[in-house]
Specification:
By secondary structure, the chain is of the alpha+beta class. It has 12 helices and 6 strands. A 4-stranded antiparallel beta sheet has the order 1-4-5-6. Strands 2-3 form a two-stranded antiparallel ribbon. Strand 5 and strand 6 form a beta hairpin. The longest helix is centred in the middle third of the chain and has 73 residues.
């Protein structure tokens, strides 16, 4: 009766549950805690940022990479857990039982037609009992083994996805860094030219008030000045956003100001030339690409699933052994050992076995077709990435020549202004044009490097595979520097000895 009352009380309590939204105070507390955790345990940035340090800080502090790392760690722990599932089951149990009356019973002989016998008692009203049982199902052992193999492949898939995240982060950091470098170099010139243009605009307005020049000439001059100011304002805004994007990638607080060390970076060097044929690049992509490797592991997981389905069609065999104790005083032996063997067969599974195996086989065919379709897509992506890089090199060479022409033209116009042969308006216009040409050249260089790293990421090559959290940030920076030196040569690793065709 007491148990019934307790159950009814629990059901009543469960039925009266209502949603409890998070309170504003709890939201505020969460915000404070999150802000306090965003940049915890980060080494402060106390010197100008280099490309290698930007990559190192992104690998260490970027939350996308942290998330990918934790996903890999989680899959690794689940792999260890799946391995333990193959162990025999060892169950210890103990209990206490109580009756409010005696468990009395009687027995009747099979051939007896007479009176019933007297009631007898064979169990104490209260007793203690315990047992330790070891059991091992051979069928479950086989299933657990292949489940562990499947989980191991899921761990490998998580590692491939982490490779993809790292490659994407490095690609984004390199792109943002060179745009921030461009901002660092051009910002002072933009501000100076913008100030000159605004001063010229003020003088133009004064000329209109005093009617010193014809109105059409004054308004045409103002139109040109306003166009220059608009271009410079857009350029100024674009340059500011470049440094903000880089700060986000390396998990730097948006309120923190920093500078970029562009003097030591190869901004004026020729972008790296690729020394491999397109066929070699295709082989590289088919070897390294993370998504193709994921498909390979997925097919192996599904192959193990088919084996599991086949194993479940066999009879199960269970072995058990136990040590038992019962305090019942009516027992002759209160301690005893027990062993047993049991077999079972799922009869209905035999009826649907052909359908189960057909589904498993169809899944393998889908995996194979999906991988082949992805292979075609990867080959197309590699060719497109290679073409984009080639085009970006051509654009870089043309913009470099244009920048040289604009610089020479600016010098000629300034010399003419000093000799009173040209107006200051032409000098301002040419200075703005020269800045835009320089920005276009720097943008073309940044686009070239972005296309280069896009090709690198398209191939799936690992730029860095060493430790991230277990070494000093300065040591990580040095390793990244060595990787950049190798990358600058334009030579990719060629692990073709591992390929079946032995390139």
């Amino acid at each position: 009766m007491c148990i019934l009352v307790v159950c009814l009380s629990c059901l009543t309590a469960c039925s009266s549950l209502k949603p409890e939204p998070i309170t504003p105070a709890e939201h505020q507390e969460r915000i404070r805690n999150d802000r306090g955790m965003l940049y915890v345990d980060q080494e402060p940035l106390t010197e100008p940022l280099t490309l290698s340090m930007a990559i190192a800080r992104a690998l260490r502090y970027n939350y996308d990479n942290r998330m990918a790392m934790m996903e890999s760690v989680l899959q690794d722990k689940q792999t260890q857990l799946a391995t333990l599932q193959m162990m025999p089951k060892l169950v210890a149990s103990a209990g206490y039982s109580f009756r409010d009356n005696d468990m009395a019973s009687f027995s009747v002989p099979v051939d007896s037609q007479g009176d019933l016998g007297a009631f007898t008692i064979s169990q104490d009203r209260e007793k203690n009992f315990a047992d330790l049982t070891l059991s091992w199902n051979i069928l479950d052992l086989g299933t657990s083994y292949f489940q562990a193999r499947q989980q191991a492949d899921r761990f490998l898939i998580a590692q491939e996805r982490q490779r993809r995240v790292i490659n994407n982060i490095i690609r984004q950091v390199c792109d943002a860094f060179y745009r921030a470098t461009m901002a660092e170099r051009l910002m002072p010139r933009v501000k100076t030219t913008l100030a000159d243009a605004r001063q010229a605009l003020a003088m133009n307005e004064q000329i209109e008030k005093e009617r010193l020049k014809p109105l059409v000439q004054v308004l045409q001059y103002r139109k040109d000045i306003l166009a220059i100011i608009d271009r410079l304002n857009q350029l100024n805004h674009h340059l500011k956003l470049a440094k903000t994007g880089l700060a986000a990638l390396i998990n730097l607080p948006s309120s923190q100001s920093y500078s970029v060390r562009f003097q030591d970076n190869p901004l004026f060097d020729t972008p790296p030339k690729i020394h491999h044929t397109i066929a070699e690049l295709e082989d590289l992509g088919l070897y390294f690409r993370h998504d193709i490797r994921e498909k390979v592991y997925t097919k192996r997981i599904d192959r193990f699933e088919k084996i599991k389905q086949t194993i479940n069609l066999f009879p199960g065999l269970s072995l058990s052994s136990s040590a038992n104790y019962d305090s019942n005083s009516f027992l002759m032996n209160t301690n005893w050992a027990e062993m047993g063997v049991q077999t079972s067969l799922k009869l209905f599974d035999l009826l649907r076995a052909p359908q189960l195996l057909d589904v498993a086989e169809a899944r393998l065919v889908v995996d194979e077709t999906s991988r082949l379709a992805l292979t075609v897509a990867v080959l197309v992506q590699i060719n497109i990435a290679h073409q984009k890089y080639t085009q970006s090199l051509e654009s870089y060479e043309i913009t470099t020549q244009l920048m040289s022409v604009e610089n020479r033209l600016q010098k000629a116009i300034i010399d003419a202004v000093n000799l009173k042969a040209e107006s200051s308006m032409n000098a301002i216009r040419q200075t703005a044009t020269t800045i835009m040409a320089t920005m276009n050249r720097d943008m073309a260089y940044a686009n070239t490097l972005t296309a280069f790293f896009d090709l690198y990421a398209t191939l799936g090559i690992d730029f860095y595979t060493g430790p991230v959290d277990t070494i000093k940030l300065s040591d990580l920076d040095k390793r990244i520097q060595n990787g950049l030196k190798i990358l600058k040569k334009g030579a990719f690793p060629l692990p073709f000895a591992a390929l079946p065709n032995g390139h």
